[in-house]
Design brief:
315 residues, alpha+beta, 12 strands, 19% helix, globular, disordered C terminus
Length: 315
């Protein structure tokens, strides 16, 4: 879970206590010039700024320079340097193209004079007609209401939630429920070898309002939270002490249908390959009816913390 810790609000913003409201505030950038925005970065205990936060804020900056009538249909981004928690991030937007059907924006995120992230986003005027098809979802997944929250699984395993995790759970803007129960030890992983796949149900913990761009940027934020789980599942527990230092390298998304990020969506994730210190993960986001909403691809860097990694073939 990403720790959304206390952050001093701007004078024009209230001090929110609801995690969903805090997420909306985090995505509400300050405009300091026509195409330049400033985003807040929470003071948190993480080594680096959460990548989904930077991607979501950059997409907000891009969207705020359009006419608002063309929803984003794709984004492609690179994480260039780790961002420092607690330090504001400036987003500079380049208006690459304003065509009859498509609008293109390029965003550079700058912190303390250094570029830490860049993103290109394309916006498309909705059109009728054309080819219509969709592959069905991979499996029949259980309903989210039947699954425990991450906090409940941790409490079941540990007996109580450690104080640090308790604070994180209270500040978590998304309710996350893993379709498969978490495994907690290396022995459990050896007993039940797993394909590099993971699936979670997610939704914001409270209403996000009615601005479609906010929902798109909130889901962009959420898309970076669990996607690289699929790379790690065959080799180590998702919670507890880690054997790898990992970081997002790039991120790409394609938005197919309208959605609300404060309603349940299924995030089905898989890793087709991990080699050379890099793991590739793909995700498909569905609504409860099985309609494909968003496609996601991300590559992550994985470096062993204690000696060489243990690997095994996967099918």
């Amino acid at each position: 879970m990403a720790d959304q810790s206390d952050q001093t609000p701007r004078p024009d913003q209230p001090n929110r206590t609801n995690p969903a409201e805090r997420l909306v505030d985090l995505l509400d950038l300050e405009r300091i010039e026509v195409d330049i925005f400033r985003g807040r970065s929470p003071n948190e205990s993480l080594q680096r700024v959460f990548g989904g936060q930077v991607a979501g804020q950059a997409l907000v900056a891009a969207g705020r320079t359009t006419d608002g009538e063309r929803p984003v249909h794709s984004l492609h981004a690179y994480f260039l340097r780790p961002g420092r928690p607690g330090v504001p991030i400036v987003y500079q937007v380049e208006r690459v193209r304003d065509g009859r059907s498509f609008t293109t924006r390029r965003v550079t995120a700058i912190q303390q004079g250094r570029t830490i992230f860049n993103l290109t986003a394309s916006f498309h005027r909705p059109e009728d007609g054309g080819i219509e098809h969709q592959l069905p979802p991979r499996l029949d997944f259980p309903d989210p209401e039947t699954l425990p929250t991450v906090a409940e699984e941790i409490r079941e395993h540990l007996g109580a939630l450690p104080e640090a995790l308790e604070r994180m759970a209270r500040r978590q803007p998304f309710d996350i429920r893993y379709v498969d129960r978490l495994r907690w030890t290396a022995e459990e992983i050896k007993e039940k070898e797993s394909d590099p796949r993971s699936a979670v149900w997610m939704r914001a913990v409270g209403p996000l309002g009615d601005d479609p761009l906010v929902h798109t940027c909130a889901l962009t934020y959420a898309s970076d939270m669990t996607l690289l789980d699929a790379v790690r599942i065959p080799v180590e527990p998702l919670w507890g002490e880690r054997g790898f230092d990992m970081a997002s390298l790039d991120h790409a998304m394609w938005f197919h249908r309208p959605f609300r990020a404060d309603e349940w969506f299924l995030y089905d994730q898989e890793s087709p390959i991990s080699t050379g210190g890099r793991g590739l993960a793909r995700g498909r986001i569905y609504d409860r009816s099985g309609a494909l909403l968003v496609s996601v691809v991300q590559e992550g860097l994985f470096r062993p913390l204690n000696g060489p990694a243990t690997t095994r073939p996967t099918t």
